[in-house]
Every structure is written in C-alpha cells, then in structure tokens.
C-alpha cells in the first residue's frame, strides 16, 4: 500500500491534519474562538485542582497552555471583556495575578463540556464502542511515545 517509510509518515501527518481540520469545523461554541474555548476549558479544569480562594494563577495558565505570557494576557483581556472571567491581584504578593470564572463563564463552560461530550458520543456511535476504544488506546500509546521521545531529547 505504501512505497516507503516516508510515504507512510506523510500519510499519518496528512491524516492528523485532516482530522484536526474536521474537528475544528465540527466543534464550535457560538460566539467563542477556538482559543477562547480551550482557555475556558483549561481554566475550569485548573480551578478544580486549586485551593486558592482567588482562583488559578495566571502564570500557571501560561505553563499549562504552553504559550507566551502576552498570548495568555490577550486571552484574559478578551474573556474579561466578555464577562466570562475575572482577574484579581494577590493582596500579599502584588506581582501574582489570579483568574476565576464568573457565573456567566461557568455557564459557557457547561455548554463547552456538553458540546464536547455530544461530539464524542456521535463519534462513538459512528465508529462503534470497540473501534473507539482501540482509537483511544492507539492515540494513548502514540502520545506516550512522542512525550518520551521529546523528554529524552531535552536532557
């Protein structure tokens, strides 16, 4: 089917790109950019694991998203303007800023999660439970491989 390892590699990359494009067209929340959806979901997840009363540290959001501080600041400004999040300063450490979901932000996150679940229910119906579990297993293996490969190069 494939003439060489290179052809197989190109086919895998093409399949991933096609999947990403199709996913972006199908997983949309009205009124939100993809980056805003991702940011709100990440914040929701992060807030479940923090005990700080002011919310999640902005620096933690930067680390989790693996984007620059200016990019995170831009996202925060846009989501603050839409009244989905609030930002506050630590009264003890004035350099530390925190972000928290507003009630309106929590509603949007609930919609994001609902849309996400519906999308995966549809995929499972299309592929079948067995194939979906196999896909999850293969993607998990590939992710582990790529993460281990990246970590060994960093050392």
TrEMBL record:
Keywords for the protein's UniProt record, in alphabetical order: DNA-binding
Superkingdom of origin organism: Bacteria
Name of the protein: MarR family transcriptional regulator
Naturally occurring in which organism (per UniProt): Listeria grandensis FSL F6-0971
GO biological process terms, semicolon-separated: response to stress
Molecular-function GO terms, alphabetical: DNA binding; DNA-binding transcription factor activity
Keyword Glycoprotein: no
Keyword DNA-binding carried by entry: yes
Segments forming domain HTH marR-type: 5-144
């Amino acid at each position: 089917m494939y003439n060489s390892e290179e052809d197989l590699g190109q086919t895998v990359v093409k399949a991933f790109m096609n999947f990403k494009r199709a996913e972006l067209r199908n997983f949309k929340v009205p009124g939100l950019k993809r980056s805003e959806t991702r940011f709100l979901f990440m914040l929701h997840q992060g807030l479940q694991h923090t005990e700080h009363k002011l919310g999640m540290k902005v620096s933690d959001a930067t680390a989790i998203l693996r984007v620059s501080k200016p990019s995170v600041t831009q996202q925060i400004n846009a989501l603050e303007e839409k009244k989905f999040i609030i930002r506050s300063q630590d009264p003890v450490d004035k350099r530390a800023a925190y972000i928290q979901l507003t009630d309106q932000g929590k509603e949007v996150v609930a919609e994001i999660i609902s849309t996400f679940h519906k999308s995966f229910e549809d995929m499972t119906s299309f592929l079948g439970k067995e194939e979906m579990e196999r896909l999850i297993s293969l993607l998990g293996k590939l992710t582990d491989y790529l993460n281990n490969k990246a970590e060994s190069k960093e050392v």
